Amino acid sequence: xxxxxxxxxxxxxxxxxxxxxxxxxxxxxxxxxxxxxxxxxxxxxxxxxxxxxxxxxxxxxxxxxxxxxxxxxxxxxxxxxxxxxxxxxxxxxxxxxxxxxxxxxxxxxxxxxxxxxxxxxxxxxxxxxxxxxxxxxxxxxxxxxxxxxxxxxxxxxxxxxxxxxxxxxxxxxxxxxxxxxxxxxxxxxxxxxxxxxxxxxxxxxxxxxxxxxxxxxxxxxxxxxxxxxxxxxxxxxxxxxxxxxxxxxxxxxxxxxxxxxxxxxxxxxxxxxxxxxxxxxxxxxxxxxxxxxxxxxxxxxxxxxxxxxxxxxxxxxxxxxxxxxxxxxxxxxxxxxxxxxxxxxxxxxxxxxxxxxxxxxxxxxxxxxxxxxxxxxxxxxxxxxxxxxxxxxxxxxxxxxxxxxxxxxxxxxxxxxxxxxxxxxxxxxxxxxxxxxxxxxxxxxxxxxxxxxxxxxxxxxxxxxxxxxxxxxxxxxxxxxxxxxxxxxxxxxxxxxxxxxxxxxxxxxxxxxxxxxxxxx
Length: 521
Prior knowledge:
Layout (H helix, E strand, L loop, with lengths): L1 H19 L8 H4 L2 H4 L3 H16 L2 H11 L3 E4 L9 H4 L25 H18 L5 H25 L13 H4 L7 H11 L2 H4 L15 H15 L5 H12 L24 E5 L37 E4 L1 H6 L11 E3 H12 L20 E3 L23 E5 H16 L4 H15 L12 H16 L5 H7 L3 H5 L15 H6 L12
Antiparallel strand pairs: 1-3, 2-6, 4-5
């Protein structure tokens, strides 16, 4: 029965997306148009693509929450006592029977917050890829949508690939609940090769250049960045040179440039700029397609400032920002102010701009340091400038999520050069320098990447923390730079925590098709 409930839930999710993704559609495609006919129009195919994209807006953002907590970035957050269920991820005490088991879900385990949404996206992508092939639509349209769909399928699989040692590899349409539990573990090599197939040059050639890519859509360079990240995570040294050439091409593309002011990246004016390679667009308006990372905002905020004055709105206090993050930045590094909000400073600014001493943020939040004061997340804090409509400030936020930035390309390029050659050449050093020059607004804080391979990689690893804190990068950087014990050992991390256990409930329901990671036996 539970299998049928889960399968039904996945199908209902897909149906709801098809229906809601286009408000002007006044018929229900599920009941009035056959699936064969539905995909024979460009409008139908685009709705299929929206169904795939929606899981980036929705459940991929849950990966942000869990990975930030697993890393050394944040405390659990939420109101006092509300975050207690999350302690098992913060201190690595989860087990195969408790890892992703939450009482508010139907069933437990395999189809959960991290991977349920990702598999929903994968199932939607498989449907669209199959139906496009027999749609009879214009070939150029089909190839472009197919390439974009394959990007999303690879993206979702990548976060499963990085989360679990072995996962089911679904490559075609699911037709019954029994199918969900008929797939066993695919090897890491099988999944890796499948990912590279979806991101092959033969596929991504049909994606547009960044300069002509519609906001919220996928360009060639986004696919190349994802491919390089997969190669690095899998430590496939045979493909480092290919990844380097891809990244080098993007790094030297005159279209891209760093946003001069790091703080501006995180405002509405910083959306879809020349630093952006891929952003996940958000709708707000209580549509369910808001930026869910905005839950990091402070609780019960009262801010007299207007949107134009930098007024803040309330979140749920999730993923508490700590003074450890504030203190890790060197004096003069603007990324401190572009990562950490000091609410006392916001109160002073509000008083200065409005003459009103009414700024307030609740201290009813897990993990705060009352002695030093309350902190917030600058990057994705709910702001009045991003408010659309509705009573819930989080559900009203339409700020986009900056997924791949040009700064990431520059640091990936420097890293790949170091991994290949040991030291950076002048070109790679220049890429690294650009990131630090922007951070400090001068050239006096450059660090040489000519100190030997290990030392250089340590420098890059730390620089990535400064640049990408709270951007869903740190946990995966810790894993691929092999820094788990060094960085997280004091929290309880051991080598087995490199990958999650498969939920025992799901292994039982699969009747032996799924097998547990030996590290968790």
